[in-house]
Design goal:
Blueprint (H helix, E strand, L loop, with lengths): L4 H6 L8 E2 L10 H17 L1 H7 L1 H15 L6 E4 L2 H9 L9 E4 L5 H14 L2 E4 L10 H10 L2 E7 L11 H11 L2 E5 L11 H4 L3 E5 L11 E5 L17 E4 L3 E4 L13 H17 L1 H20 L4 E3 L9 E6 L4 H10 L2 E2 L1 E4 L12 E6 L6 H11 L1
Parallel strand pairs: 1-13, 3-4, 3-5, 5-6, 6-7
Antiparallel strand pairs: 2-8, 7-8, 9-10, 11-12, 12-15, 14-15
Helix pairs in contact: 2-3, 2-10, 4-10, 7-8, 11-13
Length: 387
């Protein structure tokens, strides 16, 4: 079913104030999500934090089931976290690396992931290999295949949707080749979850991390981690507490058998409930319908921008998403962002190149990321200002 744009805009109170094209940073939350978060905080105010959590125990448990449905996973394969980077790192830092193994990463890996892998490489005497891009700008799966055949690969890490350039990497093909080679595949889905359908079985990933605040339209400070059940016993968390493990014998311990081994005891119950409501909201709309509308709006924005004199669109890839990047001749990206902000239009800026192999002084681009609640009229407003 197509999305009822008027209804979702009615439920998105922030649209009274701004035109929001910064959904790759943090989307505007729908009213039902905000009301869920605030409602639980009110219960904490009224009866106490632990008491409110006990009262909401069934709803908190349902968050795991909702995330599992979103990903095509099982609830016991899901953990919740405070942000996508921590969720990703919780699994990656627990991997039992052996010296002189090789880590294969894409050229558009998220900066924080690259830094973490560099630390792990230094600690464990590992080599990081940056995979080439193909002619479309996405990860070159044939280069991946060659590196897998060379052997001694400890892990393949890939960002599904890079932070800037509009493409969706062919994660399912990467997963297929990693599974055939018996190599762990870690997928950062922080920019893809909420704007494209995700199925961990079809993707073939062993680990997937996602965040609530971006296209999923959940609260900031919420995220989730998927770990394939067959892999859990191989991954012992780098830190344990009374939630992730329990005493065994006089001096031993026993780690939880499910993915919650990667969690800690204290958590933001209101945020988790908001995350669950955001997941349910997306599922009710249908991710296929979301993807169709987001991709259509983004393509329209690219076409309109390309018609403006002095504007260059930089997006690549065979499959593209809701992230649109561009530059304006004679103007820096930050200046364009400020110009648009003066007219209550939210965009962001991002490096055109990426930290896997480029210097920090790389050229910046304007990043306008659309969502299904945006309209064609809002697209035209942005383009009209640039004209």
């Amino acid at each position: 079913m197509p999305i009822d744009v008027d209804e979702v805009r009615r439920q998105t109170r922030g649209l009274r104030n701004v035109v929001h094209f910064n959904n790759a940073g943090s989307s505007l939350m729908p009213g039902p999500v905000v009301d869920t978060v605030v409602g639980h905080l009110r219960r904490e105010e009224d009866i106490g934090g632990y008491e409110a959590a006990e009262e909401a125990d069934d709803r908190l448990e349902n968050v795991y089931s909702s995330v599992a449905r979103l990903l095509g996973a099982r609830p016991e394969e899901v953990a919740l976290a405070e942000n996508g980077s921590r969720a990703w790192a919780a699994a990656v830092y627990s991997f039992p690396f052996t010296p002189r193994g090789r880590l294969l990463i894409g050229s558009t890996e998220y900066a924080g992931n690259v830094l973490a892998l560099r630390q792990l490489a230094e600690r464990n005497d590992l080599e990081i290999v940056v995979l080439r891009d193909d002619v479309h700008g996405q990860v070159d799966v044939e280069h991946l295949q060659l590196e897998l055949e060379r052997g001694n690969v400890a892990m393949v890490a890939l960002t599904h949707v890079p932070m800037a350039n509009g493409l969706v990497n062919p994660a399912a093909e990467v997963g297929k080749r990693c599974r055939a080679a018996g190599v762990m595949f870690v997928l950062d889905a922080c920019q893809s979850v909420g704007q494209v359908p995700l199925d961990v079985q079809a993707l073939g990933c062993d680990v997937l991390a996602g965040t609530g605040r971006k296209f999923l339209r959940g609260p900031r400070g919420t995220a989730f981690l998927y770990v394939r059940a067959a892999l859990l016993d191989r991954l012992e968390p780098s830190m344990l507490d009374g939630h992730s493990a329990r005493p065994a014998g006089s001096s031993g311990f026993e780690v939880r058998s499910d993915a919650r081994r990667f969690e800690s005891w204290e958590s933001n119950a209101a945020g988790r409930l908001g995350l669950g409501r955001a997941v349910d909201y997306a599922l009710d709309l249908g991710l296929d319908a979301v993807q169709e509308r987001v991709a259509g709006l983004a393509d329209r924005l690219r076409t309109e921008l390309a018609s403006v004199r002095g504007v260059t669109v930089h997006d690549r890839g065979i499959t593209r998403c809701g992230i649109v990047t561009f530059t304006v001749a004679g103007s820096d990206a930050g200046g364009i962002r400020r110009l648009l902000a003066d007219h209550r239009i939210n965009v962001s800026v991002a490096p055109r190149s990426f930290p896997a192999g480029t210097p920090p002084e790389a050229e910046m681009v304007v990043r306008a990321s659309v969502h299904y609640y945006n309209t064609e009229a809002e697209v035209q407003r942005l383009v009209g200002l640039l004209q």
